[in-house]
Design brief:
Helix content is 74%, strand content 1%. The chain has 279 residues and is mainly α.
């Protein structure tokens, strides 16, 4: 077999694996979106229907009536959005300080920060529940924001530390030689250069908070429940409302897909900036 034949064979295998991966990932999502526009009879049909008359009855059922999805969407937006903004803002400051500082045990501190993110959610739910109960934070969006911060902030600090560590220190030193303060060098030089990293960190934190079920199930109540909790309420002992369930699944997935597509240029750059260093 010639070198050209081997190269073509390896490319065919690679493309076949990529196609299989895309099918494995996209087909369930596409089927869920299509099912959200089907009538109940078409959804429960023994023969899967690809051609059908679309209907919006499941979405109308979600956003009308006394148990409208609007409140759940509002809570999800507030909890996920605010926790992401706070996480990224604090992570930029902490990550920069950690990347530019030199002290004994720095590597141990970096590992301790990310190790708090490695802990399973079940290990922190009970302590957090006791703290939130004493501080009257149960059934509140503020409580959810704090809960999301406990997991998002260590991860965000670890990522931003790696992004800042990848920047040449000489750029900030040149700015300080010209009269800039340390904060001005951080704000005007370092921060703009790690914009792809900031976008990457924000998207990953947002996805975790938006999709969270465990924290929302434990700490939320009637006034602060999020979209994943609304989806779980459609699964009852009497049956499953597949139409509304696929509609909620579409409402959960599409915003994150739109966000990912909107920032895909920054996201790809951020993921290739050396964020896996974890210095």
């Amino acid at each position: 077999m010639t070198e050209s034949s081997r190269r073509w064979s390896s490319q065919i295998v690679l493309y076949a694996l990529l196609a299989l991966l895309l099918l494995w990932t996209l087909v369930p999502i596409i089927w869920m979106v299509l099912s959200s526009f089907k009538s109940p009879d078409d959804i429960l049909s023994t023969t899967p229907k690809v051609i059908f008359e679309p209907t919006l009855q499941h979405y109308q059922g979600l956003f009308t009536g006394s148990n409208s999805l609007g409140g759940y969407v509002k809570n999800s937006l507030l909890a996920a959005g605010i926790s992401t903004i706070i996480s990224v803002a604090l992570a930029c400051l902490a990550g920069y300080g950690l990347a530019r500082s030199h002290f004994r045990g720095k590597q141990h501190l970096s590992f301790w920060i990310i190790s708090t993110r490695m802990a399973p959610i079940a290990a922190v739910i009970v302590p957090l529940y006791l703290i939130f109960r004493n501080l009257d934070l149960l059934d509140s969006v503020i409580g959810l924001i704090i809960a999301y911060l406990t997991f998002n902030l260590p991860f965000a600090i670890w990522l931003m530390n790696a992004f800042f560590a990848d920047l040449p220190v000489s750029l900030e030193e040149a700015a300080m030689v010209d009269g800039a303060t340390r904060f001005q060098a951080f704000w005007r030089v370092a921060l703009p250069l790690v914009t792809p990293g900031i976008v990457t960190t924000a998207v990953l934190c947002l996805i975790f908070a938006w999709n969270d079920y465990a924290f929302a199930r434990t700490f939320s109540g009637p006034e602060s429940q999020t979209i994943p909790i609304a989806a779980s309420q459609l699964i009852t002992q009497t049956g499953i409302d597949w139409g509304k369930l696929t509609a909620i699944g579409t409402v959960v997935v599409l915003p994150m897909v739109i966000v990912g597509l909107a920032v895909r240029r920054w996201l790809v750059r951020g993921l290739t900036l050396g964020a896996v260093k974890g210095g």
